[in-house]
Amino acid sequence: MDRENILNEITNFYLNSRNFNGISLEDLYKKSSLSEDKFKEEITALIKNRKVDLIYEGDIPNPHIKPFPAPAIEKQIEKLHQFRIDDHIKQSEANAETFGEGEIKIRFVQGIGCCVYPAPEHLKNKVDWKKYVSRPFTLRLAMGEWQLRPYFFELGILAIYRNDPRYTYRTDDITGSISYVDEKLLNPSDQIFIEHFGFGFGDGGIRAVAVLLTDLAKLTPEHQQIWKAKMLGGYYKYRLHPEFRRSILGDFYEKESIFSAFLKELEVIKEMSEKISGISLINKTFDYDEKPENFGFLILPTLREYELFCHTLDRMMSDNLNKDFFKDKITESDLSEDETMEKIDNQLIRKLEIWINKTVRFSDHGPKDEMFKTFREIRGLRSKPAHSHFKNEWNLKFYEDQKKLIKQAYTAIRTLRLILANHRNTKSVEVPDWLFKGEIRTF
């Protein structure tokens, strides 16, 4: 097999494989029928001429896909000449393991851990772009782009899936996924699955959706066109959310989102209050899959989205206080002169204030007073749309307004947890280390 045939073998394998895979170095070597030295000479020439790239197992877990750009040319060639291909094949054959019983057996031979890919410079003259005319992201893979390259899109594209009950939309405001509920409810062209999406930031910290090329390329042609229309230009202007970047690399988050922290605070408050009086102060806590759909960073900077968020936030705070918790804990003597038990019966913020003031002694009332101020402000924001008629409005200021509000709301909920933590009965309640230390992302 001469150099041209070797290159054709590499190119055809890549373009005809299921996921644009590279061909195993040893398989290519066996097919070439060349001596090891001659084979390495041909591969080296192809690398130098920017016709092929080598991806090594030592650099990534699975060299059969190209998650990132290929290593430097010098490194590729250096590693190639370190391999003893013939010796490796003989040793692998000798140490091969066989699995299975009877007529069904599988023989496992340890590979060399290197795959060969056609270089993007070569593919640009070989790919028939007409085959991918309706699949712009699949075309990018065919042209040799790396699979885990992120692309950035307008946030509003997520509303298509979040607002459609035929899709399951999940996010912790760092990463997320989209899938369809039932194939019977959707045309085949709308049956899409995005295993991972995340977020990034542009100028001024404005959020954008970030999706990896490998997930975009698996979308139906119709949805690839939708996403292409919402793609943001100027790739260099955007940066990935640091925790999304960590997840791409297979690492755990260093910090949780402020929304995840809020939900965890509710869980801890529930447990603490049950330790104090045997009944929870909180009506409902929320798992990742159960959180209200409007509880997260806005994906559309509109007045309606912002008002929905305010409404949701109040339902998780003031409306989430358990009226039964205060039974037999407040008497007439605890009330101010203009209050009666009947008058405050449904005023749960006021009941919480009375109970805390009579139960806990404070050297500094500032944080506690600020907490109740926030509870009442959020209750007031919720009441606005109920008593006024408004036209929807698009304004980027709603992004900043919401960020400010969720920070205030989280501080209030955290303060409530810290107040309860001073009670002697709550000492056994475990607070996650990241929550205790405040390792939280507010963006």
Describe the structure.
The protein is α+β, with helices and mostly antiparallel strands and 443 residues long. It folds into 3 domains: 3-123, no CATH class; 130-248, no CATH class; 256-441, no CATH class. 42% of the residues lie in helices and 13% in strands. It has 17 helices and 13 strands. It has helices at residues 3-16, 25-32, 36-48, 73-82, 85-94, 120-123, 136-142, 159-162, 213-216, 221-229, 242-248, 258-277, 303-316, 348-359, 366-383, 397-421, 433-437; strands spanning 23-24, 52-56, 97-101, 104-108, 114-118, 150-153, 167-171, 175-180, 193-201, 207-212, 239-240, 256-257, 440-441. The strands form 4 sheets. Strands 6, 7, 8, 9, 10 and 11 form a 6-stranded antiparallel beta sheet that branches. A 3-stranded antiparallel beta sheet has the order 1-5-2. Strand 9 and strand 10 (207-212) form a beta hairpin. Helix 13 (303-316) crosses helix 15 (366-383), helix 13 (303-316) packs parallel to helix 16 and helix 15 (366-383) crosses helix 16. The longest helix has 25 residues, at 397-421. The protein is elongated, with a radius of gyration of 29 Å. The model has no long low-confidence stretch (mean pLDDT 93).
